[in-house]
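Project standup — Tuesday

K.O.: blocked on the structure for the chain from last sprint. Re-posting the sequence here as requested.
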Amino acid sequence: MTSEVITTTSKLYEKDYHLWLQQTIYHLKQSSFAEVDLPNLIEELEDMGRNEKRAIYSNLKVVLMHLLKYRHQVSKRSNSWRSSIREHRQRIKRAFKESPSLQGYFNEVLTECYQDAKELAAEETGLDLATFENKCPFTTEEILNTEYLPD
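H.V.: unblocked you, prediction finished:
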């Protein structure tokens, strides 16, 4: 493959992502591997993995934040909080169904994610940060259990 074709393919990636993607898929299906813009394809695949992890982190943080608010602001419990908890649990479970290996990442970031959720819960509720437990008070099973809500 000439450097001219590589440059053209790389430029296409910058100018028309959708067309670049269509052409990349076409070349892969045709086994025209020399025509594939490998550096950008690798970058895209790496980004896909990072995006999946970001989604787990984000959804877990929302679940934890709402569980904390639910636990510590009994008088303000709402259907909106319950709905948000359910929705974000569903997103996590869907991600686990599609990519079971993400369960390991969930366990890996739980502690860090809890600290972020705790800060957000304190900010949203106006409660002092010290109100919330230092260590996540919820088990993995409770976090993912669609029926679980703290007392």
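K.O.: great, moving the ticket to review. Residues 49-144 form one domain. Confidence is low (pLDDT under 50) at residues 1-6.
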